[in-house]
Specification:
Blueprint: E1 2-11, E2 19-24, E3 46-48, H1 50-60, E4 66-70, H2 78-90, E5 95-99, H3 104-107, H4 115-122, E6 127-130, E7 151-154, H5 155-161, E8 175-176, E9 182-183, H6 186-191
Parallel strand pairs: 2-4, 4-5, 5-6
Antiparallel strand pairs: 1-2, 1-3, 6-7, 8-9
């Protein structure tokens, strides 16, 4: 069983393109300035079967094939996370992004007590956005990250080369949704306020009210 908070069926802020986002419950890191404090308690949320959850997520993501897993802290439930990721691949999900407050170095260190489960989880992840949220490095012009210290890591390339390979998410990007809305970083949105109505929606990794 895996503890989750909720699912965003349609998101444009949790990685490139349209995505289905799972918010897991429980986080021991407690970053100052965290926007998801409601997800810290491990006893919150609801417990669901990993396979059934994979079916739900893959069904919601059927037309785009993209799933993001955020939190909370996904690697606080490493064994359940690995089982979920494997099931998602089995149900045809093509692209998986996982956000973690732990760094790549900490996760992949063999002294990590969950190291074997981490290795299994990484086998099924396309991009790992790693590192704690650092409020002093928040940037209104970046996409898909909470702060500049967080690295979008190409997991499969890094595993194959045995060297850390990151993606370039440094340039602000604009996404046009099927409804014709523009999704763009907060700073860029303020510069375009004269073009039309600007509505501040949720940011990367931010839960919406239940």
């Amino acid at each position: 069983m895996i503890k989750i908070h909720h699912i965003e069926a349609r998101s444009y802020v949790d990685g490139p393109g349209e995505r289905t986002t799972l918010f897991m419950q429980g986080c021991p890191i407690h970053c100052p300035g965290c926007q998801n404090k409601a997800l810290w308690p491990a006893e919150g949320g609801m417990a669901v079967d990993e396979n059934q959850l994979a079916i739900t997520l893959s069904t919601l993501a059927d037309h785009h094939g993209n799933v993001t897993i955020s939190g909370g802290e996904p690697f606080a439930q490493t064994a359940s996370l690995a089982k979920l990721l494997k099931a998602l691949r089995g149900y045809g999900v093509r692209n998986i992004i996982v956000y973690s407050g732990y760094t790549w170095e900490a996760l992949t260190n063999p002294i990590n007590g969950s190291w074997l489960w981490v290795q299994e989880a990484l086998r099924h992840i396309d991009v790992l956005v790693d590192g704690p949220f650092d409020v002093s490095r928040d940037n209104d012009y970046i996409n898909w990250r909470g702060s500049e210290n967080q690295r979008p890591i190409d997991v499969q390339a890094s595993l194959q080369s045995k060297a850390l390979i990151t993606l370039d998410w440094s340039e602000p990007e604009v996404t046009i949704t099927p409804d014709g809305d523009l999704v763009l970083p907060r700073g860029l949105a303020q510069e375009l306020v004269e073009v039309g109505e600007v509505e501040v929606s949720r940011m990367c990794g931010q839960i919406t009210s239940m």
